[in-house]
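Appendix B. One record, verbatim.
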Amino acid sequence: MPARAGGAAGTADARNACIVGIDPGASTGVAYFTGGQLRKLETIAPHQIPAAIKCASRVIFEDSRLISHMFTTVKSRPAALKMARNVGEIDAWCRLIVATCADLGIDAHGISPKQKGAKLDAAQFAAKTGWCGKSNAHERDAAMCAWPYRGAK
């Protein structure tokens, strides 16, 4: 079940609704939608997440906690332990997103990496979204998290 927080955002003026997509990680991708249109992409550090979502009426984020196993071909124990630490960090950032949204009264929805879909390269992303600006994989993933919700209020 997706992570949820907040609830007060439903009263936000629909014209000012800002849907924010987040791909949490050491380089956190953030996508901003208003009026159903992708307006801005950026990459931030995880500690900047609370400031980045203050404008949001709804936050959609890739929630690593919603998958029960990691797809890995790691063969050494040290490499497997490093991967586990990295996943633990991302899980903590997901908890930060939910807690911050709850504090701010913003609706928050976690989606599984599988639900977000496959990664898109810049050309595929431009064809799907109409975005002609620069983007990186983190920003594109953030936008794809929120894409189905971009018209939500």
